[in-house]
Amino acid sequence: MIALLQRVSQARVDIAGETVGAIGPGLLVLVCAEPADTEAVGLKLLQKILKLRIFADEAGKMNRSVQDVGGGLLIVSQFTLAADVSGGNRPGFTNAAPPALGQALYDAFVAAARAAHPVVATGRFGADMAVHLVNDGPVTIPLRIGA
Question: For labelling alongside 24, which of 43, 65, 117, 120 has CA 20 to 30 A away?
Answer without folding.
Answer: 43
